[in-house]
């Protein structure tokens, strides 16, 4: 723990964490994105959570955890009904399902009807979370389709969205139309604004939402695989071929809200809006497209030209050159990452703190040849990536052995390295040299990251958080000013106590906002949030900080009224 440090806090929004607990019989859902924003990551049930048995490479072989806001689809021949990866590649026995920004349901597209789901998020575990496939909570025999379970929980800087029964409800900051309610103003910061009084987002007549990713703007994947976006649009991040912000004025939502042009015949599997002013989508052919702001090369097109804000931009938008098919895509402030078919990781965009993980501070994606020369992030000999959680200037990866490694800015303890130093900005710091986060005796099954904090969901349903605690986002009940956990020795391992969620309560998924964290509990219905509630993002009818004082957590922590 360290004392006062002077630094400039950049306020931003990214992230989208989602949680998917179940899916209807017919359509897969999506996972969430985290990072400056959030992710909903979920844990598997006792049987390890619906690793894919049909269609899709077995989750144990390529267990990618859900990214941000995506829907799992089986575009291949097989059903992929319970997967970590919920869809097949055409022709090849399938590859691990594409994680999603929110929570995806593994399973086939509407025409075949798959069962299954991803635990979402920047932090979600694709299919891991036990919500995927038969045997989880999704699809056959779980909580699928008929029980009001939280299928997706997506968080951003200062707002949250939930997906229940194909409908999206959003609360928190409403400055830019992010809530999609055709009014300016926040929701959840005063009593009696949530529950049945909070109206679902109108995405169009008869349209059902499969996945949601939210930040300063929000994007929803529909049951058909089509995409609609609303909120802030200064850089074309809505993909509407203009820069008109939508969602805060009457007549902008519903049937008036444009579909994003994804290309002829293309459907969205996953979307990530966590970058704040750019959006990336994983398509059904496992290619990636990105649009919006591009000053740091975060779109991955070897230039700094913004896209999506001028007529014709989306129709001519190309795919990001990644060298192989992608399984998940993630965004944060001015950078993007993708998990590839071999479960390796590539990142591009801003790199001033080593956040790309290449052992230098050179940004990538801005100049001709950058993407063709882009290497994979080295996380250790033989190690592969299941899930990524992207914070403001740092990232954490959940690896195939259920260990966690973090790199980038470490000043606030967010790398859990026992030091405030950045990691990944100098040669020799990545690969086997990069230490695993010490979480104690239990392995991690999902991650989420906010502005300067991160949390892990453990295999027993416990949640452990580290990094900046200045606004209660770690839920540790400590009001020490400028408290950081993870920047000094002896703060982690068994010394890092689980977040108190209530007597007998455990988590099945987690998602972070800028300075807040939410968990979906073991009943797959209850959601609890803690941290900075300035804009109502905690959903408790107040604007106070929760989690920085004794007596605020555990049984005293209220649930968010979603229905």
Question: Short summary of the structure?
Answer:
This protein is mainly β and about 575 residues long. It contains no helices and 26 strands.
List the helices and strands and how they pair.
Blueprint: E1 30-31, E2 41-42, E3 103-104, E4 152-155, E5 159-164, E6 167-172, E7 209-214, E8 217-222, E9 227-231, E10 268-272, E11 278-283, E12 288-292, E13 326-332, E14 335-340, E15 345-349, E16 385-390, E17 394-399, E18 404-408, E19 444-449, E20 453-458, E21 463-468, E22 484-485, E23 507-512, E24 516-521, E25 527-532, E26 545-546
Antiparallel strand pairs: 1-3, 2-23, 4-5, 5-6, 7-8, 8-9, 10-11, 11-12, 13-14, 14-15, 16-17, 17-18, 19-20, 20-21, 21-22, 23-24, 24-25, 25-26
Summary tags:
single chain, five-stranded antiparallel sheet, 26 strands, 0% helix, 23% strand
């Amino acid at each position: 723990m360290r004392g006062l440090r002077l630094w400039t806090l950049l306020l931003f929004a990214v992230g989208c964490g989602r949680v998917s607990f179940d899916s209807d019989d017919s359509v897969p859902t999506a996972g969430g994105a985290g990072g400056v924003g959030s992710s909903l990551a979920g844990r598997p049930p006792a049987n390890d959570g619906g690793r894919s048995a049909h269609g899709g490479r077995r989750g144990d072989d390529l267990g990618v955890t859900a990214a941000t806001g995506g829907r799992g689809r089986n575009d291949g021949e097989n059903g992929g009904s319970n997967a970590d990866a919920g869809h097949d590649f055409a022709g090849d026995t399938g590859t691990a399902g594409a994680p999603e920004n929110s929570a995806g349901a593994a399973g086939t597209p509407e025409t075949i009807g798959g069962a299954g789901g991803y635990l979402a998020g920047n932090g979600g575990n694709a299919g891991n979370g036990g919500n995927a496939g038969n045997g989880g909570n999704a699809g056959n025999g779980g909580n699928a389709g008929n029980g009001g379970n939280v299928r997706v929980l997506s968080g951003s800087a200062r707002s949250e969205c939930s997906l229940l029964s194909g409908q999206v409800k959003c609360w928190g900051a409403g400055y830019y139309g992010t809530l999609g309610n055709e009014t300016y103003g926040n929701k959840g910061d005063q009593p009696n604004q949530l529950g049945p009084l909070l109206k679902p987002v109108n995405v169009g007549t008869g349209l059902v939402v499969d996945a949601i990713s939210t930040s300063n703007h929000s994007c929803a994947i529909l049951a058909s695989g089509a995409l609609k976006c609303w909120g802030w649009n200064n850089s074309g991040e809505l993909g509407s071929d203009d820069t008109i912000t939508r969602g805060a004025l009457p007549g902008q939502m519903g049937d008036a809200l444009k579909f994003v042009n994804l290309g002829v015949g293309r459907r969205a599997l996953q979307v990530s809006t966590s970058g704040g002013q750019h959006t990336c989508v994983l398509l059904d052919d496992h290619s990636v497209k990105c649009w919006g702001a591009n000053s740091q090369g975060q779109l991955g097109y070897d230039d700094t030209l913004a896209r999506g804000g001028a007529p014709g931009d989306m129709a001519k938008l190309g795919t990001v050159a990644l060298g192989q098919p992608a399984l998940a895509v993630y965004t944060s402030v001015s950078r993007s990452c993708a998990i590839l078919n071999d479960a390796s990781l590539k990142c591009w965009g801003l790199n001033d703190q080593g956040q790309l993980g290449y052992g230098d501070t050179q940004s990538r994606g801005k100049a001709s040849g950058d993407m063709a020369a882009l290497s994979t992030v080295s996380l250790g000999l033989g190690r592969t990536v299941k899930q990524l959680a992207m914070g403001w200037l740092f990232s954490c990866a959940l690896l195939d052995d259920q260990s966690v490694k973090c790199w980038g800015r470490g000043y606030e303890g967010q790398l859990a390295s026992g030091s405030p130093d950045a990691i990944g900005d100098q040669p020799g710091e990545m690969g086997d040299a990069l230490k695993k986060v010490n979480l104690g005796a239990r392995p991690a099954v999902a991650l989420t990251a906010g502005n300067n904090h991160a949390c892990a969901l453990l295999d027993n349903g416990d949640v452990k958080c580290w990094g900046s605690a200045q606004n209660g986002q770690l839920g540790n009940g400590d009001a020490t000013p400028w408290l950081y956990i993870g920047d000094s020795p002896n703060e982690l391992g068994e010394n890092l106590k689980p977040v108190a969620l209530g007597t007998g309560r455990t988590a099945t998924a987690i998602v972070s906002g800028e300075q807040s964290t939410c968990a979906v509990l073991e009943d797959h219905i209850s959601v609890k949030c803690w941290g900075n509630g300035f804009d109502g993002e905690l959903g408790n009818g107040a604007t106070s900080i929760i989690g920085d004082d004794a007596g605020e957590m555990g049984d005293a922590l209220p649930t968010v009224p979603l229905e």
